Amino acid sequence: ATPMSVMVGVGKAAEAGVLIRNGEALQTASKITAMILDKTGTITEGTPKVTDIILANASDENTVLQLAASLESGSEHPLAMAIVESALEQDIELLKIEAFNAITGMGVEASCDGKALLFGNSKLMAKKQVDLGKYTDKAQALAKEAKTPMYFAVDGQLAAIIAVADPIKSDSISAIKRLQANGIRVIMLTGDNKETAAAVANKAGISEFFAEVLPEDKANKVQELQEQGEIVGMTGDGINDAPALALADVGFAIGTGTDVAIESADITLMRGSLHGLADAIAVSKATLRNIK
Ligand code: ADP
Ligand code: MG
Fold first, then answer.
1. pLDDT given for residue 1 in this prediction
2. Any signal peptide, and if so, which residues (predicted)?
């Protein structure tokens, strides 16, 4: 396409809230054969809310929430925000924590009032040798409802399961259908557990997904698909999506996402809607068709 037609295309896309940072990305967009979508904040709203607290070795929900929220006040993860917000809504006071540590793709730990606190997924509990007993069944049941269950341990003992739900954006399903109607292979990628991922993918109309993907492995997934001969689009919002966004043939960032994601992407979806993907592809096709 000529520079003039690319300029026109960039302008057209902007009207649809799709910000194109380089003309080459606009030309490549129509050739995308596989689109990777991050789950949290991309397909879903990204603002999870606490739905369930199941007590294991703990006396009451308030104490559990107080300790868990105090621990999570050290984290900026969307899951952490959900826990902190839930405590604040109930006027639960946060306690001072020490030695906070985030374990990527697994969870967080800290000490509080002389107690060792641990919060995260089953991998984290296995790593720290916390016995989950029969509670894995409870967690699985929550995950089947598309909720994300997390384990909370105090001094090496399971205290509770706290689950959050993060609804799918109202127009994600129709936007994904549009991509599939364009013959694009749609794949969901997430750090979340397999059961939750399966439930969300199923709701979203996606048959292919990869769960429990560590941040550093998201970019590897892009490369794997490229090696299979796919022209890969990647859409994400998080810091952990940035390397994959940069490596993809076309990287799309959610406009409400992190700055790092936006800077690593070629195209930003200002409205946060996944319809921006099919819009960008349509403009790309028109650009290449009109002037060759
Ligand atoms: P994603 O953002 O796709 O869920 P992450 O790699 O950030 O992927 O997280 C993977 C999993 O690790 C989460 O689903 C959760 O179980 C656990 N985890 C990560 N950060 C936290 C946190 N701050 N608190 C509790 N659990 C966490
Ligand atoms: Mg995300």
1. 75
2. none
Q: What is the CATH number of the domain that holds 115?
A: 3.40.1110.10
Quote the number of domains for the chain: 2
pLDDT at 183 > cutoff 90: yes
If one residue of 79, 84, 142 were mutated to test the ligand 1 pocket, choosing by the most ligand atoms within 8 A of its CB, it would be: 79
Residues with CB under 5 A from ligand 2 (ion): 38, 40-41, 237-238
Give the CATH number for residue 228. Answer: 3.40.50.1000
Centre a 10 Å sphere on the Cβ of residue 203 and count the other Cβ atoms it contains.
Answer: 15
Q: Write down the ipTM of this complex.
A: 0.95
Tokens representing residue 29 in the block: 């967009």
291: pLDDT confidence band, cut at 50, 70 and 90? low
Residue that terminates a domain, selected from 165, 181, 202: 165
- Who contacts 223 (Cβ-Cβ below 8 Å, separation ≥6)? 247
Range of the domain at 62: 49-165
State the Cα–Cα distance between residues 231 and 187, nearest whole angstrom. 13
Phi and psi at residue 121, to the nearest 5°: -90, 180
Residue 205, ligand 1, Cβ within 6 A? no
Atom of ligand 1 nearest to the CA of 120: 26
Give percent of the chain with pLDDT exceeding 70: 99
